[in-house]
Amino acid sequence: xxxxxxxxxxxxxxxxxxxxxxxxxxxxxxxxxxxxxxxxxxxxxxxxxxxxxxxxxxxxxxxxxxxxxxxxxxxxxxxxxxxxxxxxxxxxxxxxxxxxxxxxxxxxxxxxxxxxxx
Length: 118
Description:
By secondary structure, the protein is an all-alpha fold. The protein has one domain (about 1-115). About 60% of the residues lie in helices and about 0% in strands. The protein has 7 helices and no strands.
């Protein structure tokens, strides 16, 4: 991990993220900084952009089997950052409404969906 540390300007990344976090500077991910500086670099680059929500989701909820996962302290930091960034509401919330809200013509969709049942 030391070689990873040397590839990144950790003090610079820390200073930038602390500014971005503002009043929430206490949420600075020190364990993430120490163990996964590449991820910290990406978070700083994406902060304030809708893409960060997807990036953090991909990190914390994987579809790939056999993944070891992050150490608990890092996972907690990632979830905290995801919650803070989510409060900025940069990514459209597709979860509002009913389970059918994303479908423009629900009757047509239901007919197509049930075709295989008959």
